[in-house]
Design a protein that fits this description.
Elements: H1 8-11, H2 14-35, H3 45-49, H4 53-63, H5 65-79
Length: 102
């Protein structure tokens, strides 16, 4: 890229730097706006076709003994006291040394 002698960057003019900054900011903002994910409210076709389906699924999850067992297992794991930071098990050691006295 060739810069002419009249370029504001070569001359050190403030207006050129401001124009470059504005151009860069415009490009960055445009990229953010274009790449921003657009989320639309999704409509579940099954839920609209079967309005009682959600109620049946909740009832099935409450009445399923395997799911209930897993739920209670999960809750019991949350209640376990962590062993980190507890005192170590006490240990006793006995020693005897015979030293002859002269």
């Amino acid at each position: 890229m060739m810069k002419s002698k009249n370029s504001p960057l070569i001359r050190g003019g403030k207006g050129g730097c401001q124009a470059l900054l504005i151009t860069l900011l415009t490009v960055v903002i445009t990229i953010f706006i274009i790449t921003k994910p657009v989320s639309a409210q999704e409509i579940d076709p099954i839920a609209t076709s079967y309005p009682q389906l959600q109620e049946y699924l909740q009832l099935a999850s409450k009445e399923n003994p395997e799911l209930r067992s897993l739920w209670h297992q999960y809750r019991s794991e949350l209640e376990v006291v962590p062993q980190v930071g507890t005192l170590p098990d006490p240990e006793i050691s006995v020693g005897y040394t015979i030293n002859p006295m002269m």
